[in-house]
Design goal:
alpha+beta; 7 helices; 15% strand; single chain; 2 domains; Beta Polymerase, domain 2
Length: 354
């Protein structure tokens, strides 16, 4: 499936709010996990899919319900009925082709963005759709597959580290957003090291492998830009929301998150410019080497042109040509030509002219 733009043929002609899964099925069946906590108590358990339509929420606790697997449209409809979710909201949740964004509804707030992982072996960035629905005392999170970057947040909840157990679901939403952005920065650090190492390679030698590496990193950086740039607008909208479910104490943290996203976007632009510079250096070096080759070939041509001219004019105009009647003259001539050509090919190969 395309990374930059996913086909939405399943959605074509459908009414707005139609809940149609767009993406690749990555789990056999959905997994539902729940964490309920306040400053003094903590409960963590899995919910059977059949019981998902009767989730018992505690108003005196933060209720974090995580859904792994987006392909089960019937389950999503049941969740929508249970939590009174708008059909447009559910449509965005089950579409993995969704652009990162924040939308406000009457009783809740939807945040959609991408979680990223870096495949070091393939030098490729893998993206997963992640959505959050923030309500008054609950946070619903939706992922394509089990496994995420939130284990540190869960650990803070379990061990009551920091302020997370003493605040509401809005702060939990911020904590998850902050973790995703931190992972963006960590991923950029990993890929950035490899990009900066290209400079030495470009200056030392030029071959097709280096050019392929540059273009591969340009593709990944462009993908990062597409995924992360809209997150800035998302955070700005989160900062400016007037919904009561977001407390005043959370806005200060959102401002700090805004700075992290800005730093991430600036870093992406820096690496994009570096790759453009490496590409220019590569082509400049190739042009310089080509000029050197042309200079040597010109010297060879300058030496042999007059000799060829003399041989052409006078070589067959003598009555007596040495070895004309020698039995093996023809084969000697071909042998000399082949040896001469072989020597020149050897020299050209050694100098890496072709």
């Amino acid at each position: 499936m395309a990374r930059f733009f996913k086909k939405r043929i399943e959605n074509r002609g459908q009414a707005p709010g139609s809940i149609i899964f767009i993406g690749q099925k990555k789990m056999d069946k959905p997994l539902i996990r729940m964490i309920q906590y306040n400053s003094s108590t903590l409960n963590e358990f899995e919910i059977d899919q059949k019981e998902a339509i009767h989730i018992n929420l505690h108003n005196d606790k933060v209720n974090w319900i995580n859904f792994d697997g987006l392909h089960d449209v019937d389950l999503m409809n049941k969740i929508g009925q249970e939590f009174n979710l708008h059909s447009l909201l559910l449509e965005d949740v089950v579409s993995t082709a969704q652009r990162p964004k924040l939308e406000e509804f009457d009783e809740n707030l939807l945040i959609t963005l991408k979680m990223l992982q870096y495949d070091k072996d393939k030098n490729k960035i893998l993206a997963e759709q992640f959505s959050m629905v923030l309500g008054n005392d609950y946070l619903l999170t939706f992922q394509e597959i089990k496994g995420d970057v939130f284990e540190a947040v869960r650990d803070r909840i379990r061990k009551s580290k920091g302020r997370i157990r003493n605040v509401g679901a809005d702060y939990l939403a911020y904590a998850l957003l902050d973790t995703i952005v931190d992972n963006y920065i960590f991923l950029l650090e990993e890929i950035g090291e490899k990009i900066e190492n290209i400079e030495g390679k470009v200056l030392e030698k030029t071959d097709d492998h280096i050019l392929e590496e540059i273009y591969a990193f340009k593709r990944e950086i462009n993908f990062l830009a597409k995924v992360i740039r809209p997150v800035f607008d998302l955070v700005v909208r989160f900062e400016k929301t007037e919904m009561d479910i977001v407390k005043d104490s959370t806005f200060h943290f959102l401002s700090d998150l805004n700075g992290l996203v800005t730093h991430t976007i600036e870093t992406i632009e820096t690496y994009r410019n570096l790759l453009d510079d490496y590409l220019n250096i590569y082509h400049t070096t190739m042009s310089s080497k080509m000029n050197e080759i042309m200079k040597v070939l010109t010297i060879f041509a300058a030496i042999f042109i007059p000799l060829t001219f003399v041989a052409g004019v006078y070589g067959t105009n003598f009555d007596y040509i040495p070895e004309l009647k020698f039995k093996y003259s023809y084969f000697i001539m071909w042998g000399f030509m082949i040896v001469a050509a072989g020597v020149m090919v050897f020299i050209f190969k050694k100098r890496k002219w072709f």
